[in-house]
# Entry
Amino acid sequence: MKIILGIAGEIASGKGTLAKYIKEKKGGNIHRFSTALRDVARRMHLEESRENLQKISTIFRENFNDNLLSEVIYHDAQADEHLIIVIDGVRRMADIEKLRSLPDFHLVYIETEMENRYKRIIKRKENSDDATKTFADFKLDNQREAERQIKDLKKYADFVINNDGGFSELYQQVDKIIKDLGAGK
# Structure
């Protein structure tokens, strides 16, 4: 039985940590919305900053269609033969609408307090501008177009995880979801 978990949550809520755990401990595979955006940024020799990635996403959606990236992810997940698949970075209703047509798709929303998310983002330095980000900058990032719909996705989630605790608490919640869906290792 295949399980496809779409992960939604605000910036630095723990989506990547959850995805990495499932890949390493459950033998799953990860598909990220940002992968295509990062590929374009690298090819165009653009800095992989949050702002640039959001601009590329906006260009795609405004010039092609709102669910272009979810179409890519849909086909990637459909072709993936892993039993557990994580789709990291669900951000919009258009994403959910497309992905819900995948059999075995379940939306997981991760909620985390803003202060905890800020501490995580400056520590992880995933984007080129993360290390120098102030709390005021972080608040602005959370108000950008690409982030506005994320909070609303919680009401469409099949599962909600609170990630204000430590790794073990996060992993216990993930393990329970996978067990409840009929899989597990």
About this structure: The longest strand covers residues 3-9.
